[in-house]
Amino acid sequence: MGERVGKIALSILIIVASAISYFLFAIIKNEGGVRNLLDRISQDNKVETVKASGMNNLVVQLKENVLLDAPIVKQFPELPRGCEVTSLAMLLQYKGIDIGKMELAERVIKNTTPLKKENGTIYWGNPNDGYIGDMYSYSNPGYGVYHKPIKKLAEEFLPGQIIDLTGRNFEELKTYLSLEIPVWVIINTTYQPLSENAFETWKTPSGEVKITYKEHSVLITGYDNKYIYFNDPITGIKNLAKPKDPFIEAWKQMGSQAISLLPDANTIEGSK
Questions:
Q1: Which residues belong to any copy of the Peptidase C39-like domain (predicted)?
Q2: Which of 68, 177, 205, 261 shows the smallest number of beta carbons within 10 Å?
């Protein structure tokens, strides 16, 4: 009798353990599970073992150098102020989404707050709320758009697969690049920190915003110990190299804005 009870108990234990493992694996496969996993990846260049629920221990190491083969799209001549949607087109095309810069330009949220200047104060829209001004021509006033509307637009094509990395340490961006995922960022056209006189402050319906007309967006495709590599929509140059430290400081100066793609299960499996 005792032996029979033991076998029954063991069978029940195996069934329960299998059910728990399946449940935890389902959790880690969804967006939140992947996001929490990546949030725990090391912020330096050391190897760290990350214990992921429902999976074997995952070891992720930042690569010493990365250079990805992402599609290059040039914003000119159609979109002289369309660097943000052009860089997004490159990111989506890298994922296999058949979408062009012109459709993204049409679909991105627009901020229609009119431009007004009074006593030296500029009143206009907030690029965090939508695209400001004319994207298609320099004949009319225009500026650009920041990461929030771009993330929302990206999610129309890849729902649940876009992550906002704004405000993170640049080392976390390198984590995504090490997983062979490019990163969309806001930078400036000099790729180095700007002086204060390159900025101005606007009053907008959603509060003051500090901007520079040198604002730019690129798709980061790699790095090494000296350079950051990126696809530049202005020049149409693929994997353009700029010195690493000034680039990172300029990115921080623009608010450390970045979005990327959540890795799929195969990417995570391959990084073990």
A1: 68-233
A2: 205
Alpha-carbon distances, residue 66 vs 14, 26, 104, 180, 194 (angstroms) = 43, 30, 28, 8, 27
State the Cα–Cα distance between residues 122 and 17, nearest whole angstrom. Answer: 63
Distance CA 65, CA 139 (A): 42
Domain limit, last residue, from 44, 61, 78: 61
Residue 19 sits at the vertex; the CA angle it makes with 15 and 21, to the nearest 5 degrees, is: 115
Q: What span, in angstroms and rounded, lies between the C-alpha atoms of 144 and 135? A: 7
Return the beta strands (E) in the chain as ranges.
Answer: 48-50, 58-60, 66-67, 110-111, 116-118, 121-123, 131-132, 162-164, 183-188, 200-204, 207-211, 215-223, 227-232, 237-243, 258-261
Same domain, 130 and 245: yes
**Residue 123: φ, ψ to 5°:** -115, 120
Number of folded domains in the chain? Answer: 2
Residues 127 and 240 placed together within one structural domain of the fold: yes
- Intra-chain end-to-end CA distance of the chain, in Å: 46
Question: Residue 87 to residues 35, 41, 91, 216, 245: CA-CA distances in angstroms?
Answer: 23, 26, 6, 10, 22
- Find where tokens 């949607």 sit: 85
User: For the whole model, what pTM was predicted?
Assistant: 0.81
Whether 207 and 177 map to the same domain: the answer is: yes
Q: Over the stretch 20-79, which tens digit does the pLDDT of each residue have?
A: 444 434 434 444 555 555 554 434 434 432 222 222 334 558 999 999 999 999 999 999
Which residue range(s) make up the domain with 131? Answer: 64-270
Helices (H) and strands (E) in the chain, counts: 8, 15
Structure tokens belonging to residue 223: 């790095």
252 CB contacts (<8 Å, ≥6 apart)? 170
